[in-house]
Amino acid sequence: MPAPPAHAEGPSMSTAPTPEAPAGPHGAAARRGPFRAGERVQLTDEKGRMNTVTLTPGGAFHTHKGFLQHDSLIGATEGTILENTTGQLYQALRPLLSDFVLSMPRGAAVVYPKDAGQIVTMADIYPGARVVEAGVGSGALSISLLRAVGDDGYLHSFERREEFADIARGNVETIFGGPHPAWRITLGDFQEQVLAQEEPGSVDRVVLDMLAPWECLDAVATVLAPGGVWISYVATVTQLSRTAEAIRADGRFTEPEGWESMVRGWHLEGLAVRPDHRMVAHTGFLLTARRLAEGATGFTPKRRPSKTGFSEEDLNAWTPQAVGEREVSDKRLRRVARDAASTIQRGSLPAEEAQARRDAIADGGTVE
Ligand SMILES: C[S@@+](CC[C@H](N)C(=O)[O-])C[C@H]1O[C@@H](n2cnc3c(N)ncnc32)[C@H](O)[C@@H]1O
């Protein structure tokens, strides 16, 4: 069954102007103006230590050096510097997406902001695009994709583990202040579910972040529109090579292109201007290819590697442990899912609706 755009039937958030929140793209109003009760604020002390608090009337942020009343932040201008009961100073700012993603509840490794930026730009994710994604994991990449497709776009995310879907939903709803009108999640294996739910040739972009993207090759080729972009994020060189060779051998795509990005921060102090001593040296590799028109065959490279085949034995070796993925217990995932659910801002989603949506995911159904 083809899936209608989620915003046509899913629960939608009102964007009607209110005295506090002017109309605009989804979630934008909540990121402007004075701080409001219920929102998250990042407090940075003079040593650069950061803490994120959710503003509650009557609440307080305690450290071993005194406390700061939440009421002194509610109604204050963003960027204000406040003093706690012992004179400690704090800068108060709304967390940026990159801050949120690195501190939100997570069950699996998230796509780092530097890679999410590459994915959005290099896969050309544009407002109004129809995008499918798997797996959802903690929802970090889903958030960037939703921002890029916008309220009138369409992001259909597939995830095989329901605890991850639950965590991702909590994180997405926290940052957007409620359900996003362009988003739906389906539980199950991408390669089966996407074929059941998307029309052949109807998808503009496919974004995969999973262990074995080559297993999805036929499904991607089926749903992707001619000229559509497939981008995969993989952690290891062996996955990169396996995916690239599978795409090349299939013939329905352009030549795959692979790369990685490295971001190195710089220390900036007087004349001591130099690269930071520490950096996140490796996150993952990116690989893109574009769907050719039906019946067209990809150019074969003039020089082919001598050994591109993979035996059945190789295939069985692709386990999370073999590629160095951390095994996460079901118990831990359930706890993180509970944490993620409890961070959804209640003010923007009625409690009974939040519960109904959690129940729907727990029942293994599609949540829109
Ligand atoms: C590394 S996590 C994704 C992280 C996510 N992109 C983020 O930024 O938070 C990989 C996810 O893919 C899911 N997965 C793996 N193979 C899948 C498949 N064939 N279909 C659906 N989900 C799959 C796993 O359960 C896991 O949650």
TrEMBL record:
Region (Disordered): 1-36, 339-368
Domain tRNA (adenine(58)-N(1))-methyltransferase catalytic subunit TRM61 C-terminal span(s) in chain numbering: 102-266
PROSITE patterns membership: SAM_TRM61
UniProt keyword annotations, A-Z: Methyltransferase, S-adenosyl-L-methionine, Transferase, tRNA processing
Family matches, as InterPro entries: SAM-dependent_MTases_sf, TRM61_C, tRNA_MeTrfase_Gcd14
Coiled-coil annotated residue ranges, if any: none
Gene Ontology molecular function: tRNA (adenine(58)-N1)-methyltransferase activity
A single BP term in Gene Ontology: tRNA methylation
Pfam families, per database record: GCD14 (PF08704), TrmI-like_N (PF14801)
UniProt biased composition (Low complexity): 15-36
GO cellular component: tRNA (m1A) methyltransferase complex
Name this protein carries in UniProt: SAM-dependent methyltransferase
Organism this protein belongs to: Arthrobacter pityocampae
